[in-house]
Amino acid sequence: MADEWNEVPLGEVITLQRGFDLPSQNRKPGKVPIVSSSGISDYHSEAAVNGPGVVTGRYGTIGQVFLIRDNYWPLNTTLWVKDFHGNDPHFASYLLRTVDFQSCSDKSSVPGVNRNDLHRIPVFRPPLTTQRAIASVLGALDDKIELNRRMNATLEGMARALFQSWFVDFDPVRAKLDGCPPAGMDAETAALFPDGFEESELGMIPKGWIAKPLPEAIEVNPRRSLKAGVVAPYLDMKNLPTQGHSAEELIDREFTSGTKFQNGDTLLARITPCLENGKTGWVDFLGDAQVGWGSTEFIIFAPKPPLPSQFGYLLARSDALRTHAIQNMTGTSGRQRVPSECFNTFWLACPPHEIASRFDELTEPIMAEIKANADQSRTLATLRDTLLPKLLSGEVSVASLNAKD
User: Fold this and answer.
1) Among candidate residues 125, 154, 169, the one where a domain is terminated
2) I want to staple 148 with a disulfide (CB 3.0 to 4.6 A). Which of 314, 317, 373, 390 is the partner?
3) How far, in Å, CA of 152 to CA of 80, rounded?
4) What is the domain extent for residue 234?
């Protein structure tokens, strides 16, 4: 290790300070991020700390570290860096990720992190130029991961907007009824839509479409085959995403009992608060495995032909479906869940085969691109997490990485 690297207590690199109270009733609309132990959770009109800053959890979510580039408000469940002692803030955010927070957690019923114990943890401090080089390497990986996240949010937004326009608002039909060509639609696709509506059990729907209760168009909790003891991909409820459809993490486990699913299925959390938080996924991550499994608190949607599989996911993300599910929850206030039978009263306007096929042609490539971006991000995250401790201990140098390029 280079002579310029020094082993020092963390407190000589950064000084951590407890965050500030800000009850919800005292918050005012603004653009200043409010940072909790799990990251940016709200916004306010004024800042308590000037950025750039680094925040980690004191109570609640412990061990996650957040780099905040602008002025911000750290809540009292967090620790924020009050003084960087001349060190690079971006580097400090990565250095904190290597710290064993659990060793500084107290043993009370609500465990928290003791900042004085954190300050005593020994770390390696490189010179400032090396700090910036390390932050640049790791930051480039994080920047690409963030770019992929934003791209995926845009792509999914496009697919959801198309779903809403065609199957909820019936925009192409309304445009033709008014004697106008549907906006942003080629003539061949526009010709697939009727130019009027007709009465149905659902109300007015496009001519030639069929109103059906959801289970007649989408199979709810279909039977999947998986024998006890067979090792198969397992998805925990905590890894079902709140935004986007890609699962955060899968592990291989022997099947015992649980909800079984296959590629093309949609997973919808049925319990509080997971449903309200938006936990939903579209299964495109099983690879060669035929069937995966997970929590019994998943509801599965499997669209029946001619509806494409992604129709089920986009429906599950729609405001109408989620509102219906939440309004039909049963049980105690602390543990409510959605009964599968409630979807018997949720009606869909089902399009003819030609429109369903065209929707598939337009949205399947979008979902494939989202998957490719998510897969790349997971690879980049693995690379970052592998490099992180090696770069911050001096085991691997930035110069050696550049030499391999």
Assistant:
1) 125
2) 373
3) 30
4) 210-350
